[in-house]
Design brief:
The protein is an alpha+beta fold. Helix content is 48%, strand content 19%.
């Protein structure tokens, strides 16, 4: 996700440069500020084409895989949260926002602030690079507790340096509720004085 954002920034810069080169040349000619007394707009369009070609071949400008990634992560049922090395949230999808009960996007805030309602979780996973556990999230928004399968994975660059952590939240509330009902039924059957036979 971090490299994805950098890639998008690069592509945005290339597009802006390609768009503004002809505009600048045209404005210089309009105000008679062009250094050679010529209209440089046609040359600027040629230069703009070179910049776009460079962007297409070097930075995969207009690559549909970046858009597909965005659609995939945004539409996932699992919550995805990306933390940088300083435990700030740099990306979160709508499912993650819903699971932690955030009314507004918490991007840019520290994990300690966003997860302030669960200080024990913050303390336990503050500096853990990799973890897998089932946790309970009690929320002021929902009267029922939410059970979540938590997975934390490290995010590293090509040289192996830690860039941050990926937090995956899979809602297992229904499964837990079903297990609890089955346990209650099992206890009721065991404690019942009547003879019960299941076929």
């Amino acid at each position: 996700a971090l490299s994805y954002r950098r890639e998008l920034r690069r592509q945005m810069v290339i597009l802006l440069v390609a768009v503004f080169i002809p505009w600048i040349a045209n404005v210089l000619h309009f105000f008679k500020l062009d250094p050679f007394g010529l209209d440089l707009t046609p040359f600027a369009f040629a230069l703009s084409g070179i910049v776009l070609a460079f962007g297409l071949f070097r930075f995969h400008l207009l690559d549909p895989s970046l858009v597909a990634r965005d659609l995939l992560v945004e539409s996932m049922d699992d919550g995805v949260i990306v933390l940088d090395r300083n435990n700030r949230i740099v990306d979160i999808n709508p499912a993650g926002q819903r699971l932690i009960g955030a009314a507004q996007s918490p991007i840019g805030q520290s994990a300690e602030t966003v997860f302030a309602a669960w200080p024990d979780l913050v303390e336990r996973y503050r500096s853990v690079e990799q973890a897998q556990a089932e946790i309970r999230l009690d929320s002021a928004i929902s009267p029922e507790p939410v059970f979540v399968e938590l997975r934390i994975s490290p995010l590293r660059n090509r040289s192996g340096r830690l860039l941050g952590r990926l937090v995956n939240l899979h809602d297992v509330t229904r499964r837990r509720q079903t297990e609890m009902r089955l346990r209650q039924l099992s206890r009721a059957v065991e404690q019942s004085p009547a003879s019960i036979m299941i076929t």
